[in-house]
Structure formats: C-alpha cells, structure tokens
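Amino acids appear as letters; backbone shape is given numerically. Here is one record.
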Amino acid sequence: MSILIVDDEKEIADLVEVILKNEGYETLKFYNSLEAAKEAEGNAGIDLAILDVMMPGMDGFSLCAKIREKHTYPIIMLTARVEDVDKITGLTIGADDYVTKPFNPLELLARVRAQLRRYTRYSVIKQVDTELFENNGLVINRKEHTVTLFEEGISLTPTEFEILWLLCEHAGSVVSSEKIFETVWKEDYLDSNNTVMVHIRRLREKLKEPPRNPKIIKTVWGVGYKIEK
C-alpha cells in the first residue's frame, strides 16, 4: 500500500512517515503541496493521501479537490483547527476523514487502516455473484463498484459508494443518520455530527439531484434518508 503524505511542517511529515513505515506501508512524502500535486497527477499507484490543511502555495483543500478530479482513493486531512466549517469544507470537496493536530499516532493508524479496508473492499471485490440495484435510471453494481445514472458513469469515493449501497440495501425503508455513520465509519455517532449530511449532499450533487426536491435520495426529516424501491 502506497500512501501520499503532504505537510509543510517537516517534523509532522517525518513523524507520519515513520509511523506508517513502521507498519509496513510505502510512503511518498512532500513538504511542498505543488510538488505533491504533480506527483498525484501522474501516479496511479497511490492508495491513500494524508494532507495538511494549512500550507503555502496550495492549501490542503485545493490539493484535495485537485486529487478528486482524477482519483477516488481515501483522503485524510490533518488540521490544527477544529472549527466545524473547516471539516465541512474538506468533506464537501472530497475528503473522507479528519485528524486534528496534535494527534495520537495510534488514532492516525486506526483511521488509515479503516479507510484502506474500505477502499480495498470496493476496489478488489471477491464476490462471485453480481449484486445490482436498479431504480429510475440509477444502476449500482456492487461487484464492479460502478454507478451509472441513465447510462452516464458517476465517480464515487469508497465512502460515498458505501453510503449509497447501504441505502440501496434498505430501499423502501428509512436509514437513520446514526445507522449510516456507525455502519460506514464504525464509530459512535454524536448528535452534533454533520458528516453524514455533508456526504449525502455530495452524493446528491454527483447524482445531479435538485437540492429542493431530490428524486433519488429522500430526506425523512428528523429520521434519516431513504431510497425508494
């Protein structure tokens, strides 16, 4: 597994590299976000990226958006700030997770492993039987990890795909935000957590859903979300 590390703070980048190498991961380390962007552009062998938010030249949000133009591998953001608006911004442009500085090395490792498990699960499917969901022009192939809408391909991150498939598995029933979060992220849900809401918004944008009247992913206010059968 190859992991891209980008942080202009040399000590932090070096620490993350040591942590990951000690666990057997290969690393690509950059102190300069512009150089990292060039590497990410042409390197198809990256499995996960860890990006600092505050960097000169190109900040972590911009680099995340740049990566998302071509790649769906997981992105974890490192930030010294804890404001919700920063987290929402990162999630909106394609980040999968956040780790706040100073961080516990074991927590960072746990989040890396969780994201890689999810990515590997949907990148290298070992199921024999094709699992399909079809509804109103939406076709989801779990075996091939593909999504099309009226025959147009939709590129989803592993996290987005897992959320969408969970809703499809329970088509016709409401799935609470709590269930979505605890199933996908495998962490305890907090009432103030808006991670699910942001990912649903991203999914709707990719599925070209009208914001005020979504046709595919319905909101059941105060309960959760559902996809009709």
Remarks:
- The two ends are 38 Å apart (CA to CA).
- The helical segments are 10-22, 33-42, 60-68, 84-93, 105-123, 158-169, 177-184, 195-206.
